[in-house]
Every structure is written in C-alpha cells, then in structure tokens.
Amino acid sequence: MALVSLKETYPDYRNQFSDNSLSHIDDYSVYANGDDKVGSVEDGLFDDTTGQFRYLIVDTGGWIFGKKVLLPIGAARFDNSQQRVYVEGLTKDQVENLPKYDGSASVDHDYEERVRGVYRENRVGQSAAVGTSAAVGTSAAVSGYTADTYDYDTHDADLYAMDRTDENQPIRLYEERLVADKDRVRAGSVRVGKHVESQTAEVSVPLEKERVVIERSAPGTTTAGVVGDHVFEDGEVANVEVFEEQANVRKEAFVREEVNVRKETSQEVARTQETVRREELDIDGDGAADVVDKR
C-alpha cells in the first residue's frame, strides 16, 4: 500500500473526473473555524491499493508561512457551491503545528502519525468541550497497532470517512473509448514551372523558278522568200527578264497548350487498433447477505 498523488496518477484528471468535485479539486479554498482562511487545495493523496481518498494537500500560501500540510479527507467538509473546504474546530495555530508536507518524499507511517496526532487532539478537545465520552473512545481507538496492522477505516474512521450526504451515492464505473481526431500536416509540395528545350525542325517550301526557252523553227512555204535588200546588222537583242522564288523562313510563337494547376481532395479511411480498458463491478457477499444485481 502506498499513497499516491491524484494529479501525477491522472494527469488528465479534469476530464476523467468531470462529473464530480475532483475535476476542480485545486479550485477549492480551505477554511478553519468558519471564515478563517488557511490555504487552498493543491492536490490529493489516495491509496493505490484500495483507491480510497485519504488526504487533501493544502498549500497555506501566504497565510501560514507558505508551507504545505495534509488534511485527512474525513476532517474536510465540502461546500461545492462556494468551492470551499471547511475544517471545523481546527484553529490557525493548529494548522501551523501540522508537520510540513514535502511532496518529494514518500508519506510513511511515522509522518502520518504526526499528522493524525494534531487532528486527534482536535477531536479530543471538541469532545471534552461538549462533555461527552467520545474523547475516551478516540484515545482507545488509536492504540494497539503497528505500521503493519494500522487500518484507516478501523483506527481512525472519523478522519478518513468520506462525507456523504446521500447513502445511495452511486459507484461510477469508467471505461476507455477511442476518440478519433485529425491533424492537418504537410505531406509534401509540387512545383510546376516551365523551361525551354531546343530541337531541329524542318519545313518544305515549293519554289517556282523561271527559265528562258528558245525555240527555233524553219520558215514556212508561205513566208519563204528572198529578201534581197536585207541589211545585216549587229546588236539586235531580245531582252527577257527571268524571276525565281526564294524561301523566306521565319519563326513565330504560338500557344501549344494551356496548363491549369489546381488541388483535388480525396478521402480514405484510416483504421487504428488500440487496447481500451473498462471497469467492472466486483460484488463480494458476506454471510447470508442477499444481493440482487439489477442491470
């Protein structure tokens, strides 16, 4: 058996215990003797074997030298409407006399006895003040045990009994469920640009080219004759201009294709398997107890 911290054991305690005051345990202020504020609740200690809540860790802050002390859960009366914890009959001086709680050290039996001693004295003082025999019962209840035989619910039941106004308070069974969420992360990037490539292109152009054709023929019988008086001269010329086509190749830019860049979203289902736990109810009957489990 060991006493362990609520916040260290359940880092997500605000969500895990959202249905009761444990989810806001550190929002409660502690008062002794009515409205005499002595500190605020910082954390709690519970039995790691039975799960029973045993102490509230109270930070006295600037009220009493700034030390931390332990308050047995049975000595605390909760006022949920005002988020207050009252320790009836305990004075500020008695809080000062409580041993300092050092969260770095384990809570052993001797330390708990020093803590219980202050609250037992308070119980005895209250009983004597009202003239009852409870003081004797308190002294007898805390004798005759060792560190190995001490039992919270037997030897100091008044210090560790939870204050329950409803005897039919339900036991809540918890179970773990998988809660799926999504994170948007960068999967990569695509850069779309353009570059220039060169290649040899070939084009064919039909060209026309003129040439001079000289045709000769003998004169016909109708035109044949003798020209006796013809004067022979040099220099008679027939001038014929000859043309040809030449290829004139140039380059022009044309739109070959258009490229649009956009994003599309596709969906897929990711499946993950995890082990989840759930609490089941254990029912142990003693003797002739008749138990009916109604579901």
Could you explain the architecture of this structure?
With 295 residues, the chain is of the alpha+beta class. The protein has a domain at 3-160: SH3 type barrels (Roll). It contains seven helices and seven strands, in the order βααββββββααααα. Strands 1, 2, 3, 4, 5, 6 and 7 form a seven-stranded mixed β-sheet that branches. A hairpin with a 4-residue loop joins β6 and β7 (84-87). α4 packs antiparallel against α5. The longest helix has 21 residues, at 109-129. It is rod-shaped, with a radius of gyration of 53 Å. Residues 171-283 form the DUF2382 domain. Residues 22-92 form the PRC-barrel domain. This is Photosystem reaction center subunit H.
Attribute tags:
295 residues; 7-stranded mixed beta sheet; 7 strands; 7 helices; alpha+beta; SH3 type barrels
What's the CATH topology name of the domain at 3-160? SH3 type barrels
End-to-end distance, in Å?
Answer: 33 Å
Q: Helical segment tally? A: 7
Q: β content, as a range? A: 5-15%
The major pleated sheet works out as: 7 strands, mixed
* Unreliably modeled segments: 129-141, 165-169
- List how many beta strands DSSP finds: 7
CATH-assigned homologous superfamily of the domain at 3-160:
PRC-barrel domain
Assign the CATH class of the domain at 3-160: Mainly Beta
Give the overall shape, derived from the CA principal axes: rod-shaped
Nearest-angstrom radius of gyration? 53 Å
* Secondary-structure arrangement, i.e. CATH architecture of the domain at 3-160: Roll
Q: Structural class given helices, strands, pairing? A: alpha+beta
Query: What's the overall average pLDDT, rounded?
Result: 80
Percent range of helical residues: 10-25%
Q: What series of H and E elements makes up the topology?
A: EHHEEEEEEHHHHH
